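User: Before I run my own analysis I want an independent prediction to cross-check against. Here's the chain; please return only the structure tokens and, at the end, one sentence I can use as a sanity check.
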Amino acid sequence: MYKILKIIFIISLNLLSIQASGNASSEKIKIGLLVPLSGDNEELGQLLIKSTRLALKDINNIELEIFPKDTLSNPSQTLKSAIQLKEMGIKIVIGPVFYDSLRYLEEAEDMIFLSFTNRTLDLPKNVISAGINATSQINTIKKFTELNDVKKTIFLTPELDYAPEIKKAIKQTKIKISKLYSYDTEPTKLTKQIEKITNYKRRKQNLTDELKRVENSDLEDKDKQLEKLKKKYTIGGVNFDSIIISDFDESLKSVITSLLYTDVSPKKKYFITFNQWFDQSIIKETALQPLYYPSINYKNLKNFEKKFIKEFNETPNYLSLLSYDLVGLIYYLSLNNNVKEIEKLFKKKNSFKGKIGIFNIQNNKVNHRLNFYEIKKGKLRKVF
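Assistant: Structure tokens:
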């Protein structure tokens, strides 16, 4: 069993000007970078190269070098490029980007890969998942539900390939949920499933029955009661006070729309979802709000975007921010450790503060300490 080592770094890369003398090993720190430099994802690869260049500029240490290699978004080419990096004496690699590209990397012995993927299941032993995984997000959601004394939560997840990740994260975080539902993303099937989950037909029938009862009654305020009932869509509550929806983009909007159709409103129940990367289309959809989700630090993201645009006259993506932080992480770990043995630190427990926020490394994955946001009336607000 490894002895637990806790390293908290609290100085941002912007303040770095530490020279090579600070490196305990007094030798070059070589970092590989496996990204798509050709093919359909070439543009993404170029953005990641630029973000690592920006990190190098901010760190300002001539002993730190990065060597990019093309993956072609292909697992065989990824392994070939990894072997080339190994032959150059490189042990630490940032990348690859896509989960499928990890397939053969276990063959690259004595190397460690900080992949951008947020998948944590079935990873090669020498790959660390650095993306914002389900465990990180559910841990943050759990904090929110506990702070707001939420009693009954249901969890909705689409029948897609990341469903096992969700189930594993629910178990690991020990978040309290009353029931986990899987749903079909096909709109017609989805609506029927949401109707069943919310007991919509029974609640709709309750309204029909009450209208008939009042209409056939001799109540003095009969007309007022009828007028009031006709403004309702259903009668009766649902057996939950918050809903977690692990979905994105148009599919997420479809789920929320179906909930609205069944007379379940985000104004009365907490609607919580996964990291939406501050999607402007969701922020503009006021009918779907209030809506809550975990994410990286918004202010840090905007500051990074400004810096990146100033440097390259181009807008970065979210992986750019992650790659920037990973360069800083490797550099910090190298300051007081032998470069040749630095990969061992990734197998122990470490913490690091970067632009994204604080993330912890353990068991070949990174768990991020995320912020939590509310979208209400078209405005974004940081909850914590």
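Sanity check: Confidence is low (pLDDT under 50) at residues 1-25.
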